Amino acid sequence: MKRKIVATADGSTTIQLEEWNERYHSKHGAIQEAYHVFIKNGLCHMSSSEIAILEMGFGTGLNTLITYLEAEKNKLTVSYLGMEAFPVINEELEQLNFISELGVDHLGPVFSRIHNSPWDQTVEISKFFSLCKCKADFKTLDQQQAFNLIYFDAFGPRLQPELWTAGVFEKTYRALKSDGVLVTYSAKGSVRRAMQEVGYRVERLPGPPGKREMLRATKP
């Protein structure tokens, strides 16, 4: 499948899958979307300074990078597990401009370490941030009450409807601790109903630029 690096509206880049007419991030702004959905309405919603995060859809590592940046800024201790069935190749990663667009040149080595760390091993990126990248399909998720926060960042329901089902959301529900939270950019009615079916309390929230709404689901 043909893939290319393209610019989004906020100046940050993303990967476009031409045959599927799909991108790894919003065309309205990769960094803006990531901050709005996963940081503002996810990480900043947490009350504890020690947070276990699961990202379903590790992709370009943008969400990991900005979570690291926020953890550093706010003195949070983060344990981060990123699931990804099809890792992005190094040649593409080298063309992404997240470091320059974020204005964090000092984090260039951190971004490299995030991507060059071995799969399926926990690595200490810093004294406050540990990372494990799991090369696996979402449907293999089997943790129980392990996470405070889930970033659900799969390709959209149009492209991968099998990942936005009650069966998958039931796995995320079991993986969360009590009062744990799942955030996603999608606000599709079928997604919201699938979350509610497995027991989540679901909120519709204002979406990132170019999108009217997003969803935040809480495990009671």
Which key features would you list for this structure?
11 strands, 7 helices, about 220 residues, globular, three-stranded antiparallel sheet, eight-stranded mixed sheet, Rossmann fold, about 30% helix
How would you sum up this structure, described in words?
The protein has helices spanning 30-40, 62-74, 90-93, 98-102, 108-116, 166-175, 189-197; strands spanning 3-7, 13-17, 22-23, 50-56, 77-83, 122-126, 129-134, 147-152, 176-184, 201-206, 213-218. By secondary structure, it is α/β, with parallel strands linked by helices. The chain has a single domain, classed as Vaccinia Virus protein VP39 (Rossmann fold), CATH 3.40.50.150. It has an eight-stranded mixed β-sheet, with helices on both faces. A three-stranded antiparallel β-sheet has the order 1-2-3, with no helix packed on it. Helix 1 (30-40) crosses helix 2 and helix 6 packs across helix 7 (189-197).
A few lines on this structure:
The protein has helices spanning 30-40, 62-74, 90-93, 98-102, 108-116, 166-175, 189-197, and strands at 3-7, 13-17, 22-23, 50-56, 77-83, 122-126, 129-134, 147-152, 176-184, 201-206, 213-218. It is α/β, with parallel strands linked by helices and 220 residues long. A hairpin with a 2-residue loop joins β6 and β7.
